[in-house]
Write a structure and sequence with these properties.
Blueprint: E1 2-10, E2 14-22, E3 28-32, E4 35-37, E5 42-49, E6 57-65, E7 77-78, E8 82-86, E9 92-99, E10 109-119, E11 127-134, E12 140-143, H1 158-170, E13 174-177, E14 181-184, E15 188-189, E16 195-204, E17 216-219, E18 229-237, E19 257-260, E20 269-281, E21 286-288, E22 292-304, E23 307-313, E24 316-326, E25 332-339, E26 348-357, E27 362-365, E28 371-379, E29 384-387, E30 392-396, E31 399-402, E32 412-413, E33 417-421, E34 424-427, E35 441-448, E36 463-467, E37 470-473, E38 482-488, E39 494-498, E40 501-502, E41 508-510, E42 517-520
Amino acid sequence: MKRRWVWLCVLGVGCEPMREVVFEPLTVTAEGPLRVDESAGVVDLLLRLSAPAAHDVVMGYRLIGIEAQNGCPVADFEAAEGRVVWPPGSTEASVRLWIRDDDLAELDERLALVLDPIDGLPQSSGAHFELSIADDDRTGIIHASDFGVLPGRASDQSADLGRALDAAADQGRGVVVMAPGDYEIASVEVRPGTTLSARGVRWRRPPASPEDRITLSIAHQGSAASAATLVEGLAIDGRREQQGPYRDHERQEAHLIRLQGDWAGGGRVRATLEQLSLFSGTGSGVVVGPDADVTVCALSASELWRDAVTVIGGATRVLLSGVEAAATEGTGLWIGPRAPGFEGSLATEVDLEDVQVGAGDVEIEAASGSRVTVQRLTMTQAPLRLDAPGGSVRISDSVLMLGLASPEHDYWGSPDDVQIVNSTLVATESSEEAVTEADRSFSAVTLRAESLAEGTPASGGGLLVFDGCRFELGADVEPSDVVHAIGGDAAGVAVEVRGGSLATGYAGWFSPDCTSCTRTP
């Protein structure tokens, strides 16, 4: 607030001075620290008003990530949304945030503090401040352009990019940065501990590539775990229609990304794949082999002949978070060890959360010693197959689409320890085989004693539990169809239904052959 003198003149009286008060709007500035070390821990960001006020000034605050993120795999920052208050006469207040240290070699990452006026300020006086987190793991930054890797060129640049990646690995924990744009890339290897930062970058697989070529591979050898590897922001176009025939599953091993550790020595490959887009491939988007510790966050996958993510390795841990898979066919999800890990282990630990599969084909296997935890899996089409003869499976808050049982799909094989909680199960007449009138009597969940899963089944009877689940009917189920929620016989597996509901149109909870099925209302 400023004061200035003006003159007031009254006819017949004369002139005398008076004070005119001019109000200037209050503003907020951030006085630091606006750049913090990754190891900083707790940080108090000082916010200053341009002048003290005679009343409370209140603003709402929130932190949003730009490159930094507060989700998967490890939050770069944390701070609750809330209010910041300047009491009367005060010009200083602070917002507390928590900086989380990880072991990924990264570029410095930005986040933003957004302030919105609540009381004591005009609505137009919001504020926006950028902060940056300085990484403490990288040993250097390598620009791919310094090695001749430039967007827009028609020739394959794999060799030059490989030289840049090797230079980063030779530094220890180097970060390779690619300029945004399109590149012809046939195949490269990222050595463990190296980071590939490719925000806004798209690789295009050259036409008629070899049938077994992997576009990006990360492999580790040795008895100790590798340093953490990061690939971020990359899009890979597999150019599926330009690769050649696909009549007898040719090129089904030509995956876009593959990771594996040392199954002989026991050394695990550690890697994070973040904000990737994988599309138009003849193989899978991401294949996780044996002895791997892999996190996949914010993956978009479409039109892949096989799976968005295929987990086939034993002695492996995988976290999938924020995966969106959409396609007219293919682009499913496979969790089932086929490649033994160290000392022949087929055990896997897999956590899925916030995964959408648009074209069905979800297959989950749990061998002995395995654990699969699924939260918020949403399917929009069948099929689903679950084989868990030796491990534990937990599925919650999900939507599962269940088609007609076939030799390879839409059945539940010899479940040993499986619980489905607070989920919706939808029966449809979808099938990979021709549907006949004989198929008009079926179950949403079909139990079998047989299993396709590898490994030794658990001894004794198993348990399959549906707790608080709702069974629905798909739009293609006809009114004359006879549909039960659960049917079949899994040779001694007890089936318990706890609560839940059955949609109108079902003939009942259990078909006559489900002799070990019970329900508790």
